[in-house]
Amino acid sequence: MAALLPFQLHPFVVIVIVAAGAAHHFLVSSPRERSLARYALLALLLVTIWPLGDVAAKVSLSVATAQRLVIMLLVAPLLLLSLPTTALARLTRPSPVDFVVRKLAHPGLALVIVTLVGTATLIAPVVDWGARSEVARDLILVVVLGVGVLLWIPALAVMPGTRRLSPMARAGYVFGSALVVTSLSFVWIFARHPLYTGLHGQYALLHMTPLFDQQLAGFVAKFGSYLPMGWVAFFIFAHAEDQGAAVEETPLHWADVERELLRLERQRARALARHRPSP
Hints:
Blueprint: H1 11-27, H2 31-48, H3 52-58, H4 61-81, H5 85-91, H6 95-104, H7 107-120, H8 124-132, H9 134-156, H10 167-181, H11 185-190, H12 202-206, H13 210-242, H14 254-275
Helix pairs in contact: 1-2, 2-4, 3-4, 4-9, 4-13, 7-9, 7-10, 8-9, 9-10, 10-13
């Protein structure tokens, strides 16, 4: 492996992840939320640095698929859950941010964006670009993390002022999202030749041909998304019943009420500004 895949430190990635962990530790006091952030950032570090990160970027599509699944299905939801409601309320309080988050949190729009952008990060030209350039590789992974966060906003119902689905609707959304994450799996499984010319060394490093690696990526995408997301959907549904909540009811939270009051104040201020006589 040393000859085919020399050690690289990736200092930018390490510095950003360590800085994010330090900032979270000082800004958030809850032990539970600190633990969630540590698990998320540790998982992110392991799949983005040498050797896994380099194998995913330059050698193996199946490893790259597993890397993206870890980022989207583990790192992204843990990071969202590691932020308290008060912090999310402050981050989304500015009017432009509030508007964008409110629109993107719609489950239908979220699925469309996740499908288009997530699929785009795995098409051959983008993967080959990431194999040639470390800057491109890091940029692609940032986009993947952003897509993962967007995917989980409707499911986790933690973002203040956004549409909150009932437990039954959230469970259905999560289960349906598994189909989105596997959008290219059939192409990989049934393709008759390798599609990713930028990836090389599969046989020398992993003892598999490029075509087999590509087909394996299709099965990794399917089982790596169906199994965990099916379990999460079941957990959301069952947890609502365990707490005595009707699975068809949409919960109401004080953070949502505060955000609606803030929006009404802004609307009133804009209306007064429009009707104010000119000097």
